[in-house]
Design brief:
Blueprint lengths: L1 H34 L6 H12 L34 H6 L5 H9 L1 H4 L13 H14 L2
Helix pairs in contact: 2-6, 4-6
The protein binds heme C.
Heme C binds next to α2, α3 and α4.
């Protein structure tokens, strides 16, 4: 009798532990999934932005250089920075810049908007794109 009770308590204990681990795993998985939606590294992104610096300013009210100012680019429609002479391709593309479109554009500018005049080959490493976008978002706050 006593032994049986002990056994079933053991059994329950193990099941409880199992479920606890299982739920923790799910919760960790979900929260990682949510945060990885956008969690690039701002400092690393700043370094990547050096590639863009030659042609783009990022501060509010910044001047156009070879390319348009990028302050607040997220949510903006392509080809709409006042006073910049865009290519026809960029204007007619009428893309709304967000994480998704910018990721595609930066990985291969010429493929995403054929005929646009940004003389930039694109960034190969996905994490560099993620980081530079995080930096752009951060600097636009
Ligand atoms: C050699 C110069 C050059 C470099 C380097 C460059 N760009 Fe550009 N960029 C341009 C030009 C020029 C345009 C306008 C393209 C057009 O009108 O077709 C542009 C357009 C853009 C646009 C669209 C702007 C808008 O208002 O719709 C984004 C976003 C952008 N660049 C981001 C970047 C980022 C991020 C980097 C660095 C990873 C970068 N660019 C590097 C020259 C450059």
């Amino acid at each position: 009798m006593m032994k049986q009770l002990n056994d079933s308590l053991w059994g329950r204990g193990i099941i409880l532990i199992f479920w606890t681990i299982f739920f923790c795993a799910i919760i960790t998985g979900v929260s990682m999934g949510v945060s990885s939606v956008f969690a690039g590294d701002v400092d690393a992104g700043k370094k990547v932005f050096r590639k863009c610096n030659v042609c783009h300013t990022l501060e509010e009210g910044g001047k156009k250089k070879i390319g348009p100012n990028l302050f607040g680019i997220m949510g903006r429609q392509s080809g709409t920075f006042e006073g910049f002479k865009y290519s026809k391709a960029m204007k007619t593309a009428a893309v709304t810049w967000n994480v998704d479109t910018l990721t595609q554009y930066l990985s291969n500018p010429k493929a995403f908007i054929p005929g646009n005049k940004m003389a930039f080959p694109g960034i190969k490493k996905p994490e560099q794109i993620e980081n530079v976008i995080t930096y752009i978002i951060e600097k636009s706050k």
